[in-house]
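Data availability (excerpt). The following record was deposited with the supplementary files.
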Amino acid sequence: MAWEDRTPFEAIETLYGLNESGVIRLMRRELKPASFRLWRARVGGRVTKHAALRDPSVSRAYCPTQYKR
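Predicted structure:
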């Protein structure tokens, strides 16, 4: 979920109890250093990673086609 650009940190916290700093620590521990730097650069300015910055009309945490069943 953290790797996905459209999933806000608040959704991760609701499901797994990890706040934003906890997710960052987890990603730092689990990813290779270069992958972590790329992820941080990508997430740093991403409006969709923070529910408060999102357009209020977007109520979902992920793309409708992301989890096909």
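Summary of structural features: Residues 9-53 form one domain.
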